[in-house]
Amino acid sequence: MATLGVNIDHVATLRNARGTFYPCPVEAAVLATLAGADQITVHLREDRRHITDRDVRVLREMVQVPFNLEMGCTEEMIAIALKTKPDMVTLVPEKREERTTEGGLDVRARAQDIALATKRLVDAGIPVSLFVEPDAAVLDACKASGATMVELHTGRYAETAGSLQQEELARIVRSASYAQALGLVVHAGHGLHYRNTQPIAAIPGMHDLNIGHSIVARAVLVGFERAVREMKALVAGQ
Ligand code: PXP
Asked: Which class for 237: exposed (0-12), middle (13-18), buried (19 or more C-beta within 10 A)?
């Protein structure tokens, strides 16, 4: 059974749209946890467009379930992670101008940087996951980097339909199995919503799904706890 990591970035997006102190990502994290979230995830972006450094510090203190910090593989972010000590770090690619994370981390092109960052984090007791395309060669590079977990990018699956989507699903299924054979724990995420999550959650050995935008969007209409409970049921195959 897959578990649910709730990404609360877009609670901060709504707050920052007006420069107010509400809605509060910490309150959202508490409600998500009460509704069954297995993990809370945030992405501290280089431009701080949603989650801020203070959010990360306060969430670290308040969150009662594992806290996953997504971040670019930069010196600044590594220093923040080493200081904050989240339960895990997910390294993601980051370009300042992109609307959201658009592709997986290019682990082959940045092998040395990523291996070094992973070692520093793991030596400090913080396990590392790499957010990557579902591709065997990339997964080989993930294994070589010293990371113990990967998050398979479901963006293309989410954006396609029909036979293209089925092909992409098959690619994710094959990659999940390949990654597990390498000894990597497999997560997945990006673009998952209430109608496309179940086939990904049903992949054998799938560990954690990180889902953000669709849950926050639904929460605006039905409330945060209900939005999380409904997604949790889908992820748990109920
Ligand atoms: N996983 C990773 C690595 C991400 O970068 C994001 C977006 O920040 C998500 C999951 C969540 O994606 P979405 O908001 O589309 O559910």
From this structure: exposed
Ligand 1 pocket list (CB less than 6 A): 7, 9, 43, 70, 90, 92, 100-101, 131, 151, 189-192, 210-214
Tell the residue nearest (CA) to atom 6 of ligand 1. Answer: 190
Q: How far is the CA of 131 from the centre of ligand 1 (A)?
A: 10
Q: Residue 89: beta bridge partners?
A: 69, 128
Token duo for residue 123:
């030596």
Gap from CA of 100 to ligand 1 centroid (Å): 8
Pairing of strands 149-153, 128-132: parallel
Q: Left if phi > 0, otherwise alpha if psi is -120 to 50, otherwise beta: which for 190?
A: left
Give per-10-residue mean pLDDT for the chain (238 aa).
Answer: 96 96 97 98 94 97 97 97 98 72 86 96 98 97 97 97 98 98 98 98 97 98 97 95
- The angle that helices 111-123 and 136-145 make with each other, rounded to 10 degrees, is 50
Contact criterion met (CB below 8 Å) for 98 and 107: no
Look at ligand 1, atom 9, and give the residue with the nearest C-alpha: 190
Per DSSP (E only), the strands in the chain are 3-7, 39-43, 67-71, 88-91, 128-132, 149-153, 185-189, 208-211
Lookup result for tokens 């009662």: 64
Task: Report pTM.
Answer: 0.96
